[in-house]
Structure formats: structure tokens, C-alpha cells
Amino acid sequence: PRRIIIDTDPGQDDAVAILLALASPDLEVLGITAVAGNVPLALTQRNARIVCEIAGRPDIPVFAGCDAPLARPLVTAEHVHGKTGLDGPALPDPVMPLQDRHAVDFIIDTLRAEPAGTVTLCPLGPLTNIAAAFRRAPDIIPRLQQVVLMGGAYFEVGNITPAAEFNIFVDPEAAAIVFASGVPLVVLPLDVTHKALTTPARVARFRAMGNRAGTMVAEWADFFERHDREKYGTEGAPLHDPCVIGWLLNADLFLGRHINVEIETEGRFTTGMTVADWWRVSDRAPNALFIRDVDADGFFDLLTDRIARLA
Ligand code: BDR
Ligand code: CA
Asked: What residues does the Inosine/uridine-preferring nucleoside hydrolase domain cover (predicted)?
């Protein structure tokens, strides 16, 4: 199995991504690192543990990381995810422990201990933990197999400002460090996640599964869909973060290009924008595989098949 660390700020769509990874025998989740994002760190680390328990995997080590962006105050997204970050179904407090080690130490230690080229990082939130690890231990960068992240937008532009996607906007300095690091980078931006919509027919399939995970996915979709229906008039909500795991499981469902992507950190209106050179009009070297398209039905078939395997 492909070995991954999930860095996350759950978030209903993060939660679905975690369930998808834990339901997939072709992936081995070495650990989950929480970061402040959709809601503060105290909630994201708690939510990550709740999701592991829903998947029947209290053995997964969960670590708390950075509680604020590198150089700015935290911006959160309760308007999308609710007060707890996982609003929707009633959820019990987690029983499994939070690990003592800091998430950034776990990332560094793991990458130094494991054979080079065998571990992939999957960031699903602001890139604070990843940038902190890269800054403190640049020796881990060439040891990574890949970084496959959800963040950014180009043709679909922004969801938190007119120009910026939430994960990049919250910590643009961190994003700039990751995008300039030279690590093999795969980016799943809004351009692709806005094509992976939780339509009523797709949600019905989760509801019909009869397992706890399927019910949770349906109820989370019911909750965060309301925001998107009102705001964008779509018939469902984009399932952003599961696209990262979907790409790892079957990259053939996705289409993108190797291009240059720069992070705007000091724009007057555009801070946090991912300036993606899709048409290759600059002479800047490609630094990312920027995904733009997905076979949404194929992706939901994969997701449904895997979530149904959970107890
Ligand atoms: C991203 O922001 C968060 O609200 C979601 O969990 C996703 O990671 C989408 O812009
Ligand atoms: Ca997220």
C-alpha cells in the first residue's frame, strides 16, 4: 500500500477524505496531523479523532500541530462547517487519545525514519504544519514521495475572497514555502473540486448503505450543502478534500497539467491567490501538477464503493 500522512482541519469534507483513506486497503495511513483552519486547533484535533473512531480505527495516531498561521491571525470558516467544524449529525466525544508529540515533530521524525521516497503528505487544510516542518527540517523535502494537496483555484477563482481559495488564503506564507520547495506537488484546486458535487442521487447512495460511515457522510453532506445551495445555487456541495485521496487511489479519473503556480502573499486584493500559468505564458519553471478536471461519476463510484466497506 501507498503510505500517507493526512494533514487536516476537519471539516465535513476532510472527514469524508479521512474515511475514504481509512476504508482503502491500498493506502496505509501512518498518522493524522491536525492544523487550525476551518475551526480552531482544539476542535480540528478532536474532530480528527472522532472520524477515526467512526472508521473503527482508534489505533491511528492523531497529532495536534500549529494553532495559527505562520505570520497572520487565524481565519476560520464556521459559516460553512458550523460551530464545531463537523456540524450535522450528533457526535460523541472521542475516547481515543491525542498523541503527546507535536504534529510537526511527527512529520519530521517519520520522514527521517522511513526510507526516502516512500511517504506522501496529503494536506487538506492550511499548509502551516507542512511549511513549519520544511522550514525546520529541509532535509525531509527530498525524502518525500509527493505532496498531494487540496488548495487553490484558478479558473474558478476564490471562495473566501474573490481571488483566493480558503486553505491558501488562511496561510499564504506557508503555501509559498511549500510551492517553492521543489517537492513533487499535485494540486487539487476548486477548479476540480467544484465538479465533484454531492447531488441528491449521490447522497442517497450513502444514506442507503446502512453502515454508520455512510449515514455520517449523508448527514454531513446535508449540512454543508445548505451553504453552497444558497451561495452558489448548485444542486449539491463540492466534496473538496476527498479529491486528494481519490487522486491517490485512481489518478486516471483526473486530468491536469504540469505548470508553474506562484502564491500571492502581498496582493492588494489577491492575497492567497494561486497564480497558475495554465497557458505557460511565463518562463517560470513548472512546480506542480495542477488538476482541472475529474470524472465525477467515476469518483463517486469509487467513494461509494469504499465507504460501504466500513463497518
Ligand atoms: C477547503 O476549505 C475548507 O473549508 C475545506 O475543508 C477544504 O479543505 C476548500 O476551500
Ligand atoms: Ca479542509
From this structure: 4-301
Taking only the tens place, the pLDDT of each residue in 147-186 is 999 999 999 889 999 999 999 999 999 999 999 999 999 9
Question: In this structure, what C-alpha cell is assigned to residue 291?
Answer: 488538476
Distances (CA, A) of 143 to 81, 113, 195, 221: 34, 10, 33, 36
The CA distance from 143 to 213, in Å, is 34
For atom 4 of ligand 1, which residue has the closest CA? 38
Verify whether residue 240 is a known catalytic residue.
yes
Q: Model-level pTM?
A: 0.98
Task: Identify which ligand lies nearest to the alpha carbon of 159.
Answer: 1
Q: What is the pLDDT of residue 231?
A: 81
Alpha-carbon gap, residue 235 to 58, rounded angstroms: 35
Q: What is the pLDDT of residue 258?
A: 98
Q: Is the CB of 45 under 6 A from ligand 1?
A: no
Which of the listed residues 6, 14, 18, 38 should we mutate to test ligand 1's pocket, taking the one with most ligand atoms within 8 A of CB?
38
**CA 180 – CA 170 distance, rounded (Å):** 18
Amino acid at 280: R
26/188 Cα distance (integer angstroms):
20
pLDDT band at 233 (very low <50, low <70, confident <90, very high): confident
Say how far apart CA 269 and CA 118 lie, in whole Å: 39
From the CA of 167, the nearest ligand is 1
Check pocket membership of 165 for ligand 1, CB cut-off 6 A: yes
64 Cα to the center of ligand 2, angstroms: 15
